[in-house]
Amino acid sequence: MCKSVTTEEWKKIFYEKMEEVKPADSWDLIIDPNLKHNVLGPGWKQYLEVHASGRFHCSWCWHTWQSPHLVILFHMFLDRAQRAGSVRMRVFKQLCYECGTARLDESSMLEENIEGLVDNLITSLREQCYGERGGHYRIHVASRQDNRRHRGEFCEACQEGIVHWKPSEKLLEEEATTYTFSRAPSPAKPQEETGSGWNFCSLPWCLFWATVLLLIIYLQFSFRSSF
Hints:
The chain is an alpha+beta fold. Helices cover 36% and strands 23% of the residues. The protein has helices at 7-21, 111-130, 156-159, 169-183, 191-194, 203-225; strands at residues 4-5, 26-31, 45-57, 64-79, 84-91, 94-95, 104-105, 107-110. Strand 4 (64-79) and strand 5 form a beta hairpin. Helix 1 crosses helix 2. The longest helix has 23 residues, at 203-225. The chain crosses the membrane at residues 202-221.
């Protein structure tokens, strides 16, 4: 079983891989929870990872859930004169949909997933900061098909206007079918089946009229016997 990766292990994997591809340059990785999508300083580049998968743990009710819709934002800057670069990183959080608390919870990821995510980051970094081409992005990190609807009201990235998920064709077809059946009018039921109105042929009414008839016959017989 793979262990969950901490911030320090994120940095360790990044530094090791950058040492292999750019040993002459010094790079730093900084976690920045205030990083904003498409808000860049002069010379900074951006890479948005939308193929990540992570497990969330609610610190309030202890509910855990797996999400294949994890979003990670990277801002990158290279100072060619100093041969030094910096990467700022933000992992967007999610709200717990079980207890409804307004506290955003962080995710944990497996080391096997981090390897692919860092490879994607470095591919984008080499393209945008060094002008290199020919890299390949790994999209199998969270390639498992997920036909559940993403609950954007609990996603920090969605709430900040980052569009990173769209429903699959299968999900759209299922929802359209569900909507059609839910909106279909119910067929009219005969009055005797609904139980509304006066049904004089029902068993209670038959017993009532039989009792009335017997009472009339009894009264007539008693009246004649008295004479």
